[in-house]
């Protein structure tokens, strides 16, 4: 990789406050994914960006056209070698299978972080703040997940009224009498 003489900043706290919060929530919310991946780079300065541009690794020159990395709103993801070796049998921090990346992207999306590969058609490691506020969990979310896991409810229509028929069905499924 070109531009090796630039130190990669992997510090979450150097990201924008919103992106930092999103990444932290993501790490806390999906530890299984984070056992497989790490942040290869977060914040990047103009000189580093320009170096990547000159070597053909980015289309943004860092001065006239800024990368989201320069704003702390993007992270590049890499996978732990042991994980890729185990799942794909190759010695790399970048899996070849698109499903592996998609698995991370589906997880990231829940925390307001977007995988840009489907948009750009290149640069698989790049994830950025989707521009929306930090997703909030509802106060009843834990109870909903519990009831779904128990098979008592399908978890749909959280704000609808409960009919008498649905109450009977719920009591019967709860099976505590
Ligand atoms: Zn990137």
Jot down its keywords.
Muramoyl-pentapeptide Carboxypeptidase, domain 2, four-stranded antiparallel β-sheet, 8 helices, 177 residues, elongated, binds zinc ion, alpha+beta, 41% helix
Overview of the molecule:
- The chain has 177 residues and is an alpha+beta fold.
- It has two domains: 12-129, Muramoyl-pentapeptide Carboxypeptidase, domain 2 (2-Layer Sandwich); 141-173, no CATH class.
- It has helices at 17-29, 31-36, 46-54, 81-88, 98-109, 117-120, 141-149, 164-174, and strands spanning 37-41, 74-79, 113-115, 126-129.
- The protein is elongated and about 70 Å long.
- The structure holds zinc ion.
- Residues 69, 74, 76, 126 line the site of zinc ion.
Task: Give a concise summary.
The chain has 177 residues and is α+β, with helices and mostly antiparallel strands.
Helix amount, in percent? Answer: 40-55%
Alpha plus pi helix count = 8
Q: Can you tell me the residue ranges where pLDDT is under 50 for at least 5 consecutive residues?
A: none
Q: What integer value in Å does the Rg equal? A: 21 Å
Task: Tell me which CATH architecture of the largest domain applies here.
Answer: 2-Layer Sandwich
What is the string of helix and strand elements? HHEHEHHEHEHH
């Amino acid at each position: 990789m070109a531009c090796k003489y630039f130190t990669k900043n992997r510090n979450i706290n150097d990201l924008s406050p919103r992106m930092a919060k999103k990444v932290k929530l993501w790490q806390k919310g999906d530890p299984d994914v984070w056992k497989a991946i790490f942040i290869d780079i977060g914040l990047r300065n103009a000189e580093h960006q320009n170096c990547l541009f000159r070597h053909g690794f980015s289309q943004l020159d860092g001065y006239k056209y800024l990368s989201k990395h320069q704003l702390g709103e993007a992270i590049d993801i890499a996978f732990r070698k042991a994980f890729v070796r185990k799942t794909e049998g190759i010695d790399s921090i970048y899996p070849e299978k698109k499903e592996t990346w998609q698995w991370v992207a589906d997880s990231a999306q829940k925390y307001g972080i977007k995988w840009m590969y489907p948009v750009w058609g290149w640069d698989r490691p790049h994830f950025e703040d989707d521009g929306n506020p930090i997703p909030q969990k509802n106060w009843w979310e834990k109870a909903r997940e519990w009831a779904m896991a128990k098979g008592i409810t399908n978890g749909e229509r959280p704000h609808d009224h409960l009919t008498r028929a649905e109450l009977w069905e719920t009591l019967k499924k709860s099976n505590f009498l």
